[in-house]
């Protein structure tokens, strides 16, 4: 074919002629639409876990972030399997287990570690662990070289039903939970139910708390499933757990697709969290598990909804009954450490100010039915806290 252009061979050529803005248009609009699509795989087999992760890595180099507990229990097998499948030795960083590792210091350490290694922007970071590792590893991946790919392999129920999905990432600050973070979606999520066999009952219940949250805000069908399978879930029945994890992924994916970067003020996924986060902050991140704090926060919001006459007493009773059956805390008596009401109110107030003066409380009206209230006044909160066992100064 005849062409007047000079031959460029294999070189990738771009011809452009962007016009200068005309007079009278001082404001220029910049757009940056972005759409991320990724799969959430759920399996019970180690071989499939490795195969799925390897498929996401492809020809790239890989580094794995994990914690010491997970490394001892499952990491050695996973790393060896991946190494054999890829024919390359992954770089591995192991940090201390626990919420304390979700810190800026730990993130900085990982950035130094990545910079000293061989990984580049097109390579892949695998987060192999619970919500702490998923949140921290994803946040580090999002910042490294302005964003490298990462794959979540959540090993706790909290990770599999919640933290591993959605690309919402952060580290804690001593003044507030998840204060420093951002959004960066994973390239894929691979959840292996068999990893949950080594998880203790308390962490299983904390994971179920996040599924109760999803059920209450978005799916009466899921709620009925949790109610009717509560005993099986607590007993570690893998059929029940698998259905719980698969449905959690589907429900969270649907909610996130509607509002991936939380522009919408109807953030029902925050149910239970307006109080859970300050509760974790004032108790020093760790003594109360995140899922336990969420259960307590949901109970407090249910009490607010009941007091406002928004929630029928029968549904309120159903909510509290399910949380109690799951041995999740609904009053301070069931929390593992005492809570100072004055400090809790101060920490809640600090989050309110940081959020531009209003906190979004999610008040349940029924199953799958909620309203957002940003007008919860001090005395209303204090009253709900008192009914939850917190000693609040009058
Ligand atoms: N990004 C999100 O959307 C989102 C959602 C929910 C929770 N989170 C965050 O997740 C964190 C809580 O997650 P978590 O409860 O998984 O905490 P975690 O990561 O600290 O894990 C809990 C404990 O279980 C251990 N563990 C992990 N896998 C195990 C296994 N298979 N067997 C035995 N022990 C195992 C860990 O070493 C740790 O000691 C919080 O920081 C919370 O804010 C984030
Ligand atoms: Zn949560």
Radius of gyration, CA atoms, in whole angstroms? 23 Å
- Overall helicity: 40-55%
Bound molecules: nicotinamide-adenine-dinucleotide, zinc ion
What is the strand content? 5-15%
Overall pLDDT metric: 94
User: Could you give the distance between the termini?
Assistant: 86 Å
Strand count, sense and barrel status of the largest sheet are: 6 strands, parallel
Blueprint of the fold:
Layout: E1 40-43, H1 46-57, E2 62-67, H2 68-86, E3 91-95, H3 104-116, E4 124-129, H4 131-143, E5 149-154, H5 157-163, E6 168-173, E7 176-183, E8 188-192, H6 201-218, H7 220-234, H8 238-258, H9 273-282, H10 290-307, H11 313-325, H12 341-354, E9 361-366, E10 369-373, H13 378-387
Parallel strand pairs: 1-8, 2-3, 2-4, 4-5, 5-8
Antiparallel strand pairs: 6-7, 9-10
Helix pairs in contact: 1-2, 3-4, 4-5, 5-6, 5-8, 6-7, 6-10, 7-8, 9-10, 9-12, 10-11, 10-13
The protein binds nicotinamide-adenine-dinucleotide and zinc ion.
Q: Any overview of this molecule?
A:
There is one protein chain. The protein is α/β, with parallel strands linked by helices. The protein is built from 13 helices and ten strands. The chain has helices at residues 46-57, 68-86, 104-116, 131-143, 157-163, 201-218, 220-234, 238-258, 273-282, 290-307, 313-325, 341-354, 378-387; strands at 40-43, 62-67, 91-95, 124-129, 149-154, 168-173, 176-183, 188-192, 361-366, 369-373. The strands form three sheets. Strands 1-8-5-4-2-3 form a six-stranded parallel β-sheet, sandwiched between helices. A two-stranded antiparallel ribbon has the order 6-7. Strand 6 (168-173) and strand 7 (176-183) form a beta hairpin. The chain is globular and about 80 Å long. The protein starts with 39 loop residues before the first strand and ends in a 7-residue tail after the last helix. Bound molecules: nicotinamide-adenine-dinucleotide and zinc ion. The site of zinc ion (ZN) has 5 residues, from helix 10.
């Amino acid at each position: 074919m005849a062409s007047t252009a000079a031959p460029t061979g294999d070189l990738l050529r771009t011809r452009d002629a962007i016009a200068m803005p005309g007079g009278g248009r001082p404001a220029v609009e910049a757009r940056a639409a972005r759409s991320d699509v990724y799969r959430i795989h759920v399996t019970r087999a180690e071989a499939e876990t490795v195969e799925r992760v390897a498929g996401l890595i492809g020809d790239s180099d890989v580094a794995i972030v994990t914690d010491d507990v997970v490394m001892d229990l499952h990491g050695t097998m996973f790393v060896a399997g991946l190494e054999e499948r890829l024919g390359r030795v992954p770089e591995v960083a192991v940090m201390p287990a626990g919420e304390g590792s979700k810190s800026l210091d730990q993130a900085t350490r990982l950035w130094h570690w990545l910079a000293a290694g061989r990984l580049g922007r097109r390579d892949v970071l695998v987060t192999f662990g619970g919500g702490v590792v998923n949140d921290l590893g994803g946040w580090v991946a999002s910042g490294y070289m302005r964003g490298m790919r990462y794959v979540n392999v959540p090993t706790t129920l909290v990770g599999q039903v919640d933290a591993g999905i959605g690309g919402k990432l952060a580290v804690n600050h001593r003044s507030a939970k998840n204060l420093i973070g951002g959004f960066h979606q994973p390239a894929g999520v691979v959840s292996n139910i068999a990893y949950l066999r080594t998880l203790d009952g308390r962490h299983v219940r904390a994971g179920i708390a996040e599924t109760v949250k999803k059920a209450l805000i978005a799916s009466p069908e899921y709620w009925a499933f949790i109610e009717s399978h509560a005993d099986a879930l607590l007993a570690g029945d893998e059929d029940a757990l698998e259905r719980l994890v698969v449905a959690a992924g589907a429900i969270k994916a649907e909610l996130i697709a509607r509002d991936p970067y939380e522009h919408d003020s109807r953030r029902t996924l925050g149910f239970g969290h307006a109080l859970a986060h300050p509760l974790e902050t004032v108790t020093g991140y760790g003594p109360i598990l995140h899922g336990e704090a969420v259960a307590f926060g949901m109970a407090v919001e249910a009490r607010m909804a009941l007091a406002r006459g928004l929630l029928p007493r029968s549904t309120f009773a159903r909510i509290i009954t399910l949380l109690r059956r799951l041995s999740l805390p609904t009053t301070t008596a069931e929390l593992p450490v005492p809570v100072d009401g004055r400090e809790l109110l101060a920490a809640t107030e600090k989050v309110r100010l940081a959020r531009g003066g209003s906190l979004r409380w999610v008040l349940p009206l029924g199953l799958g039915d909620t309203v957002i209230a940003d007008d919860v006044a001090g005395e209303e909160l204090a009253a709900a806290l008192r009914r939850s066992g917190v000693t609040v100064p009058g």
